[in-house]
Each structure stands twice: as C-alpha cells, then as structure tokens.
Amino acid sequence: MLQYPESILFPPVCEICGNLSVAGKMLCDYCLEHCFEPANPDGSPSCPGHIPPDFVNVQDALWKYDKKGFLQSLLIKLKYGGQRDIGRQCGMLIGRQWTSSHWYKPDDNWKLVPVPLHWFKFWKRGYNQAKEIALGFSTETGVPVCEDDCISRFKFTRTQTGFSLDKRLKNMEGAFTVRKPEDLRNHHVIILDDVFTTGATTYQLADQIYKTGVRGVYIYTIGVA
C-alpha cells in the first residue's frame, strides 16, 4: 500500500484565503501584507489611543483589531478553535517586530510572560493561547519563557466584553500572584497576549510584575482595539 506524506494528503492552507501556504505557516505572505492594518506604524511607545501607566515601558501590537473582520476571525480560531499554530506564527511575527524596534537590546536580560489562564479555563480549552504566542516569540528571538508556575491566576473572571474600564479594572483586582519573583527580578519582562482592549488585564499583571523589582515591563499582543 502506497504511503503518502501528510503534506500531500492534507496540504497546508492559509487560514484567511484558503490558498496553499508554506508548511508550518497558518497565514500566507499575501494575506499578511494585505488583510491587516498595522497597529503602531510610527513605532511609538504605545499604540494610538492608549496611554499606559508609568510602570509599563511599551505597549505594542501587530495589527488593529477589526470587529467581524479577518483578525477577529483569526483570533477566534486561535482562542476557541484549537488552532494553536496561529499563536506560534503570530508570536514569531511579534518577535521580528520587537527585534527591529527601538526597544530591542540584545545584551539585556529578557524574560517572556504569557498572560496566565485560570485553571478552569485552561482545563476547558486545553491550552493557553498566550503561551503559544510566547513560544513563537521565543523561537524567533531566543528569549526564554518563564516557568508555568512563576505566576498564577487565582481569580476566575468571565469575559469582560461590554464592561466599562472601571468595571474591568475592579473585575481584575487580585487576579494574579507572582509566586517566583526571583525568576523575574532584574529582568526586562515582555508580557504577551492575543488582544489588547482597555489594558485592564495586562496592566494588572504588569503592576504585579513591576513590584518584583524588574528593570522594565513591555506589553505585546497580536491585536489592539
């Protein structure tokens, strides 16, 4: 019986256009260039419309969030559809953007922190999409990802869609605990997540990380609202 490579039986296709793609890539080069709007084309310390708190050095993203558009569809597949490789590829793209930015300092101590999931959400989903993004970033740059038990998310929070900023912030109070501050101390820490909306989640995490004595806190996401 003839045995065919999996790539012939199930050739890789782009998640946006459906055309053939390169093995290991969930998005083709054409769609990467034409289907998304850059989030921060000027390379500013924060994306337009966002002013991070003093303890956050940089808030950056790949693309602007497009409700009911290509990016929203892609992030739904990553977050709820089991398409973990989308996170890996996007993480690599974020890594390339970071290494070409003003903030890249290869000789400094860097550490990646994917936004943790509550254990119940992890149990239901089977993976943390932010961790997949971090692994892609690490593959591209060599920056290590913190251990899974370095930071815990003890507070279960439901989706915050439709919440005001004040309600989001209150909802996230006490959500994160840094269990191994010595693993982050004196490092530049990059927080990674799929989408940045108001910053309630990542700012709460950044605040806890900053208190450990890190040298800087940076937030990078795939999309920004």
Write structural notes for this entry.
The protein is α/β, with parallel strands linked by helices. It has two domains: 35 residues, no CATH class; 188 residues, Rossmann fold. It has a four-stranded parallel beta sheet. Helix 8 links the parallel strand 5 and strand 6. It is globular and about 45 Å long. The N terminus is likely disordered.
Summarize this structure briefly.
The protein is an alpha/beta fold and 225 residues long. The protein is built from 8 helices and 6 strands, in the order H-H-E-H-H-E-H-H-E-H-E-E-H-E. 34% of the residues lie in helices and 16% in strands.
User: How many β-strands, per DSSP?
Assistant: 6
The CATH architecture term of the largest domain is: 3-Layer(aba) Sandwich
CATH C-level name of the largest domain? Alpha Beta
Q: What's the CATH topology name of the largest domain?
A: Rossmann fold
Shape: globular
Sequence of strands across the biggest β-sheet: 1-6-5-2
- The sequence of SSEs as H and E is HHEHHEHHEHEEHE
Averaging pLDDT over every residue, what do you get?
A: 89
